[in-house]
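Service request form, structural biology core

Requester: graduate student, group of Dr. S.
Request type: structure prediction, single chain
Budget code: on file
Notes: please return the result as structure tokens.

Sequence provided:
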Amino acid sequence: MQHIDKAIQLKPGEDVLEVVHEDIVPHLPRFFLLFLWVVTPFFFLFPLFREGWVGVLIFVGLLSGASYFFLRAYVKWSCTVMIVTDRRVIDVERKAFFDREISEISYPRIDEVSYRVKGLFPTLFRYGHIRLHVSGSAADIEFKNAARPSRIHDLINDLREHARTTPHA
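Core staff response, request fulfilled:
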């Protein structure tokens, strides 16, 4: 079974149909720069260590700062998901280590589903934004950089139509 955030509680009989992650391609430049920041202190290892405890302190400071930001970016990317179940759509957005926003919407409340693929890289690597337009005063749900947004768009639209034609128990 695919990874689901532990904060998400599925209802009895509810099945997860799809777990959508952000595509890695738009995050590659950031990960590359953070990777360079992590490995750079090792190029200055011997000159820094020759300076004594001050050099060791600089080395540890550079390495720990780089590791923190790299881990933070990775957690933010890997824990931001859209979960499509047979009853609802759950959007889990990880903003930082201790900051998570979870939104959910049932299919009858979704007025419209749209997606947008804009630009050369999104077109080549097939990722884009999915937007769920919600009825009432609730805010719309937008999931950015979703892999294969057309497939998710079609799945949610099919589930919306099925929810409208099926009588509620």
